[in-house]
Target: MFS transporter
Amino acid sequence: MKLPKWNFWNFGGLFFFYFLIWAVVLAFLPIWLKEQAGLDAGQTGLVFSAISLIALCYQPFFGVISDKLGFRKNLFWFVVCAALLMGPFFTWVFIPILQFNIWVGAIIGGIYLSAVFQGGVGVVEAYIERASRASSIEYGRVRLFGSIAGATATLIGGMMYLANPISIFWFASASAAVLGILLRTAKVDTSSSAAAAADPASDGGEITKERVFSIFKLRNFWFLSLLIVGTASVYDVFDQQFPNYYNQFFPTTAIGTQRFSELVSLQTAIEAVLMIFMPWIINKIGAKNGLILFGILTFVRIFGSAVATDTISLSLLRLIAAVEMPLLLVSIFKYITGVFDVRLSATIYLLAFNFAKQAAIVIFSSIAGNMYTNIGFQNTYYFLSAIVLVITIISIFGLSNDKKHRSPVGTVQPNSKPNMVASPKM
Model:
């Protein structure tokens, strides 16, 4: 059996250590803000709101800059260098600022943390997707290392936090150092035909303001954004307080929390396995159908959770998430590179996916939170599932068929040019 090329392990390592930082820090940040920084629930919510809102400011600029840079790593290096400061920031900077003024602390924390996470994640994913495509490597297969990182963080994060809460942030800094080494060694053979197809400047075209703004004239861009708002955003909002709903089915909260932790670990393991096969599945069914299937599964999981009456059925419904995430992560990039101008893939990804999703979460989180209080979890789930179903049906007719545009991974048609920014035919 031929072993995967070095680039596969290199790109996979980039994903692993970036999402290891992500999972370790964000999983324990709410607890740290309460126990170590002394914030109450409202103040903690203010910090997370600042992170989400400031990330919205980063994403459009990060997308355009990523496309202008192409295979150059400048913006990725910015994220890595910011992540290196995680330990010092939490040890000596963040708590004094929060104690001085909660609003100032929330803004500064939001500027820093969103640069590494909610804003920076698009930079990381867009670069590795482009570099993988240039190296004729399936993006989904290197993305599975991110799922493995999530499982690893679950195993080691809790032990480190209990031993010394600040240790998780210094662990993040150490992981960022390894991430930097892997980024330094990452290479793309720019002379290959696959690299020429993935390079934003492959046809000599410059990423101009007019070209970027022409994205907003595309009917397909708005339908893609609508699908993300109505499915992926609702997916995240549903998951935010699902553990509280899940715990209601158990005699005590402690038992429910333990069972949910075990369930998430199983979900993450299944997700990592499915990531291996998902690129092949999406190549067969098409990225549009993958996105539609994601919407259908999201509807089934939310609606099913509303009607479930026992822990077994509710747990099985939760495991659907192990299929949903690989479907979404692989389909979204294949759809963008299959339908839109590949020179603007990062911009479209950060706008249609990250920006639209984050903005909708800010709005939906507040609405769902009030509904949970006023009408209960089940009725709120009926409402959320209805949104997902309606948007998914609209997307069936609104999204273009990517299989009419896309070539097999790593291949370039003779005399082909990147898909131009023009309204794709139905």
Notes: Residues 407-426 have pLDDT under 50 and may be disordered. The longest helix spans residues 345-398.
